[in-house]
DNA sequence: CTGGATCCTAGTAGATACTG
DNA sequence: CAGTATCTACTAGGATCCAG
């Protein structure tokens, strides 16, 4: 464990290092942001292209998600004033740098999804009885 | 990039690898779960001990957060039937394994919080004009 | 001490319809 | 095509009271 990591652990959770995680998780932890980021990590995309690829997202939520990511500097929005209008979304450098940690979390999720579902089933079974 | 990582990227986001991330992020991405997990990563804790340490959490939300984590097999709840009753919460092995990825994300957040805030300020400034 | 039960509020998601 | 506007329904979260 390097010094940065130990710095993350050596504190009360009310301290800065931990507090700063919450807003980040609030951003990428919502229902759609990760999907958008992972999609854009492969290639930039137009609005409706994203909408088609993200199954079940509403137009409104895609707009809000993209605005949030754009505001945080993770996504770049490029408008081409043509007819019909064309808007491309791409990850910024900052957005790409987020992919690493997110992928790590994805790997963890993939690796343990069975354990988690088993634990849920066991918990629910206990709750029944 | 190793093969596992490329496996995470080489798919449409509607596919399994990406879909499985969402529920995990929904769990740890809520307002309190990460704080609880990070706290318990250092030492097991009693209910009110957690409540005191996590500034601003309500009794209700701590209960719900712990139940959720317990259901997912991340936290172990141990009841000591004494008077007064004593309940200890500790991370399971699964819970501890989650700390690594979460810490990685925390490091990313710490490293880029300034960039993010600058991007937000810039975005909000543009929105004004 | 450890919560369960209840009530209340504000925010947020989703569907739908409309616009440049 | 790429959104905005609006309306409704749901849920998260806090406050409070109660119980083992």
From TrEMBL, chains A, B:
<protein>
    <recommendedName>
        <fullName>HTH hxlR-type domain-containing protein</fullName>
    </recommendedName>
</protein>
<keyword id="KW-0805">Transcription regulation</keyword>
<dbReference type="InterPro" id="IPR002577">
    <property type="entry name" value="HTH_HxlR"/>
</dbReference>
<dbReference type="InterPro" id="IPR036390">
    <property type="entry name" value="WH_DNA-bd_sf"/>
</dbReference>
<feature type="domain" description="HTH hxlR-type">
    <location>
        <begin position="18"/>
        <end position="117"/>
    </location>
</feature>
<dbReference type="InterPro" id="IPR036388">
    <property type="entry name" value="WH-like_DNA-bd_sf"/>
</dbReference>
<dbReference type="Pfam" id="PF01638">
    <property type="entry name" value="HxlR"/>
</dbReference>
<keyword id="KW-0804">Transcription</keyword>
<dbReference type="GO" id="GO:0003677">
    <property type="term" value="F:DNA binding"/>
</dbReference>
<keyword id="KW-0238">DNA-binding</keyword>
């Amino acid at each position: 464990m390097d010094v940065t990591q130990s710095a993350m652990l050596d504190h009360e959770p009310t301290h800065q290092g931990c507090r700063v995680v919450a807003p980040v998780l609030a951003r990428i932890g919502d229902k759609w942001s990760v999907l958008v980021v992972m999609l854009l990590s492969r290639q930039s995309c137009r609005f409706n292209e994203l909408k088609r690829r993200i199954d079940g997202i509403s137009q409104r939520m895609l707009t809000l998600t993209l605005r949030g990511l754009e505001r945080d500097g993770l996504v770049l929005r490029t408008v081409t004033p043509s007819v019909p209008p064309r808007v491309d979304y791409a990850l910024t450098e900052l957005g790409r740098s987020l992919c690493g940690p997110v992928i790590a979390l994805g790997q963890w999720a993939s690796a343990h999804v069975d354990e988690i579902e088993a634990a849920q089933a066991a918990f629910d079974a206990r709750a029944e009885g």
